[in-house]
Design the sequence.
């Protein structure tokens, strides 16, 4: 990494085992752990945290602040104490983990240890690890970030499940791909170097399926809205045509055209309101059925629902304008003569 840091435009390099978002789910739901003084509730399991192996400077390379304590250094996780004992294993934890496990306390210099049964099959030490730092949350599992329980292990201690090189640069990131690849191949000819990308492009890559789904469902929604507009306009146009004589009589006895305009638009709004109420009732029943069949199903918040209702009512009013204007322009003489 020192050779890479010597390249023009490179500010910082670091090592990790997970590319944010692209490698989501690599370690499943995480591993169970416990800590000094932590007591779980009756019937509860130990909390789970994601495990990450990183090199010193990882947080600086990603622009993530260390809130308390310090970063790893080259001596963490290797060597021995002056008295010959092995050095105490150390970790850095995320802010959410520190606040949840050590509420209203300083997590630095406290100890955590892994309790997950799977650890007997994984080369990860279950001995108590001293916390030397607390960092801001890095939710590398979800594009929309949320609270994250993560434990970071020093690179020198391992284990290493594949490698990801992170480079912070002030130059064009993609201009570094060739020289970095050359440096890596000089060290190991067989070392694969692939899928180099900025975090922004990785995020766009991960969001591509969701964006495609959004476009497809948006097209279907637009088509459905257009059909609804044509339906409302058609029903009102037929109603106005059938009530031509009525409108003529109302105009003859003194009704104003704007009153006819308002009445027809109100009729369209009532139709749309009835449709919204019926649709909401059916949707509620279907959501209840779907929740019983699918776990962890999420429903939209109130904002998109209210927005959809507003769009539908507004569309119904717009669709009512043309038939309403036709009703307001009825010729009294011709209307009275019509059958």
Sequence:
């Amino acid at each position: 990494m020192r050779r890479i840091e010597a390249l023009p435009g490179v500010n910082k390099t670091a090592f990790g085992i997970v590319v944010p978002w692209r490698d989501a789910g690599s370690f499943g739901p995480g591993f169970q752990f416990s800590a000094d003084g932590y007591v779980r509730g009756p019937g509860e399991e130990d909390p789970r945290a994601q495990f990450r192996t990183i090199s010193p400077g990882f947080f600086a390379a990603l622009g993530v602040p260390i809130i308390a304590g310090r970063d790893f250094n080259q001596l963490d996780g290797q060597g021995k104490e002056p008295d010959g004992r092995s050095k105490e294993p150390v970790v850095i934890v995320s802010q959410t983990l520190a606040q949840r496990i050590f509420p209203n306390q300083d997590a630095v210099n406290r100890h955590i240890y892994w309790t997950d049964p799977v650890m007997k099959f994984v080369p990860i030490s279950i001995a108590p690890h001293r916390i030397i730092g607390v960092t801001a949350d890095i939710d590398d599992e979800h594009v929309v970030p949320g609270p994250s329980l993560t434990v970071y292990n020093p690179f020198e201690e391992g284990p290493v499940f594949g490698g990801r090189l992170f480079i912070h640069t002030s130059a064009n990131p993609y201009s570094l791909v060739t020289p970095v690849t050359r440096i890596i191949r000089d060290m190991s000819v067989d070392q694969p170097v692939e899928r180099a990308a900025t975090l922004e492009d990785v995020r766009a890559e991960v969001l591509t399926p969701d964006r495609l789904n959004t476009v497809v469902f948006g097209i279907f929604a637009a088509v459905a809205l257009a059909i609804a507009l044509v339906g409302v306009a058609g029903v009102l146009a037929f109603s106005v045509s059938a009530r031509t004589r009525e409108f003529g009589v109302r105009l003859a006895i003194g009704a104003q055209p704007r009153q006819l305009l308002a009445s027809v638009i109100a009729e369209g709004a009532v139709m749309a309101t009835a449709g919204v109420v019926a649709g909401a009732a059916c949707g509620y029943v279907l959501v209840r059925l779907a929740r019983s069949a699918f776990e962890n199903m999420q429903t939209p918040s109130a904002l998109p629902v209210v927005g959809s209702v507003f769009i539908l009512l507004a569309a119904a009013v717009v669709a009512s304008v043309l038939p309403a204007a036709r009703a307001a322009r009825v010729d009294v003489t011709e209307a009275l003569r019509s059958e």
User: Anything to note?
Assistant: DSSP finds nine helices and nine strands in the chain. Residues 251 and 274 are 29 Å apart (CA to CA). The mean pLDDT is 85.
